[in-house]
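Subject: for your reference before the review

Hello V.,

The reviewers asked for a structural picture of the protein, and I figured it would be easier to keep everything in one thread rather than splitting it across files. Below is the amino acid sequence we used in the manuscript, unchanged from the supplementary table.
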Amino acid sequence: MGGIERSAHVVWRGGLDRGSGTVSARSGAVEELPVTWTSRVERPDGRTSPEELIAGAHAACYAMAFSNVLNEAGNPPDQLDVEAVVSAELGDEGLRVTSSVLDVTGRVPGMDAAEFERLAQEGERSCPVSNALRGNVDIRVNARLEE
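And here is what came back from the structure prediction:
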């Protein structure tokens, strides 16, 4: 398989503090999501931010990677619910993404909690978005198996 490319496009108008923009995925799946500096560092008020988009990408990627790990272990999941919380800090050097915490709850027939936790960590290590962030962003996984 050759290289895979995906792209997004942003239109930004104005300066940072009072400007605004929209972000769209070239696939057409996401169109003209509003983004502003205020939505990034204060209240979202219905607008997104790069950090929220990273959280979405991380959660989706991790869900796919973890489901693959579970499947390869002979226990495909009935369902995985993944929430990613991306944190950033505004300091002297500007805004910096500092962490991404993945909270996963799963229904996996025939699996015990210890094995679910072990494979949850393995799934994180095989997630391409985790691997892109690793070394620059603290990544944690909290895993809970539903009974």
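For the response letter, the relevant points are probably these. Residues 74 and 110 are 9 Å apart (CA to CA). The chain has a mean pLDDT of 96.

Happy to draft the paragraph if you're swamped.

O.
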